Amino acid sequence: MSDSHIPLPERLRPRDLTQIIGQEHLLGEHAPLRQMIDQGHLPSIIFWGPPGVGKTTIALLLAQAVDRPFISLSALNTGVKELREIIAEGGDLLTPVVFIDEIHRFNKSQQDALLNAVEKGKITLIGATTENPSFEVNGALLSRCQVYSLNALSAESIQTLLTQALQNDSFLQERHILIEEFDALIQFAAGDARKALNLLDLIASTFEADMENIITNAVVVKVAQQNIARYDKSGEQHYDLVSAFIKSIRGSDPDAALYWMARMLKGGEDPVFIARRMLIAASEDIGNSNPNALLLAGECFRSVQAVGMPECRIILGQCAVYLATSAKSNSTYLAINKAMELADKTSNLPVPLHLRNAPTKLMKEQGYGVDYLYPHNYPEHFVLQEYMPPELKNTKLYESARNKREVEGERLQQRRWQQQQQ
Q1: Where does this protein have compositionally biased stretches of type Basic and acidic residues (predicted)?
Q2: Cβ atoms within 10 Å of 101's Cβ, excluding its own
Q3: Looking at residue 230, what is its pLDDT?
Q4: What is the pTM of this model?
């Protein structure tokens, strides 16, 4: 009986760590995970990498390699109560390996429940995340785990994966498939093994059995376009929608900003990702024309992490409208970019003596801090003084956007420049 009703990625799921493709830096002969398993040791781990690169499969095979029970959970539908029940059920059995997919979606209380169990050795945690764990995982929990980055599959790895699929899957063998051109398959896969195999499976289902069937780029494009997902969180549309969202905020159009945000949320986008993008926009596109925008965006980011969907859509919507209707300025964004470029070119310039710190007598004798003018000792808390290295005297990086808020804060800067020109 054919097992073609089972998705191809599941039919071909590796049964051994040696069958994993594209993660040799972790699983090769002298790689870290291989050495740990050879020693019978498995610590708590966070796997960080894009979708479809083997995070779940590797976690399962690691547990099997050390002969430990494996419990798979999803952060989307596991609460604190269920977590505590699972931890308690471990009892005196072998320490279970608890795998949590999308661990970045766990809130603080859920991560705290894990922390105690990991700390006391009740479980070995393996978390998987597509987001940077430095931002998304509780620092205390992160410090008790080893973090390993998994790579998107290269074009060569995708080609190897598809070739092995044709050789090892009975359903594909019945279709006598020859892949004449790999380019389109590799492009649509975008480094994702699951996506590559699902597309191959879909194309194979359009072929007749017991006939020679050839896959070309044209065949792939036709099938893929007929069955393209409405919203792919890791694909091109993901970037197109967030681009439209940010540009609508920048363009002061709250209606468009809300629309593109709703499209992302309906497609299953992580609300924390949206909040993070608004945090950036609040500084890049609004800046000092309205400093409160950054404060609101920061509170939005924290609130979204605490509340989660569906209620956090309200908070996201409020922030998006505020940013879109706020005054705009990219003056500080342009200034820091100029400063970074200048720093690259002049990193060898010493700090002028009068600006240096002088914590010791010897440093003072060497002239550190001498001739520094303390602005608060002068009228209006301002005194003309050079703060740049002599080689960069009169260098101007910040240009006001001339809006009301920035003009008010520019008065002393103009006064300094006027005095320098005299």
Answers
A1: 403-413
A2: 20
A3: 47
A4: 0.57
